[in-house]
Amino acid sequence: MRRLALIVLFTILVLTTFAERIDGPANVRSAPKGTPIISLNDNVDVGCSQLVNGWFTISISMKISKEQYDSKTPFSRGDSLFNWQDEFIGTVLTNIPDSLQSPWYSGGAPGNPLRYGMDIYASTYKSNIKPQSIPEIPLAAILSRTKNRPTKEDLDQYMIDFNFTNSGILPQLVKGYDEQMIYESTIDDPSPMDRIRFIFRNSELIAIVHTRPIGEFLSSQALVRGRNIIILKQMTPTEQQEFLEINRRAYDGID
Questions:
Q1: What is the mean pLDDT of residues 24-33?
Q2: What pTM does this model have?
Q3: Which residues of 12-38 are buried (b: 16+ CB within 10 A; e: fewer)?
Q4: How far apart are the C-alpha atoms of 43 and 194, rounded to whole Å?
Q5: Helix, strand or coil for residue 198?
């Protein structure tokens, strides 16, 4: 279904600040164990869902022409695909079902040129995603290396590599905390919030909010909206309950 996504697209482009990477060339399929529809090149950025039964749902964002946008069949077998930097990212293997295509356009105002794009949502096997591009995996390694007590300095390069940004979630209610976060994939959360959020105080990592498992030996507690929290700082039971409640309340009013 075609859609005009001026506001939504802008939000996605701003919030989706990192992506997993293809270990390729790799086939993208219409569904788990389905028909191969695209071959993606090595190291191509894709949005990635949580792993389900060995398969990822992925999103591929690409640049298309106005003619492709207007066409009922924008791609044919053998067509080349390009990203927003005009880099060749893969090849169409067969007709792509309409249900997997989501074309959009944005811009057209002065200083904001008209652009046409398409997102394709499909499936790829777990071995086709580079493990070190999945942020939870290197984070678990850092936690293990630092015995679950990393400082902000220990995480600096990791946060650069995965494009963490400042978060204003907790400071809405209480001062004194520094937060850095990355957003959840729009596949799993159409209006994405935090996928991983670090809560620091005086360069000490107090807690980690997360939507996906991190490591095997860390105890998480439920927050809200599918988020969990790992509290790393020693707290009394009362302090811990107050901290949990503040973090739950911080999501009130967030869309």
A1: 97
A2: 0.86
A3: beebbebbbbbbbebbbbbeeeeeebb
A4: 24
A5: strand
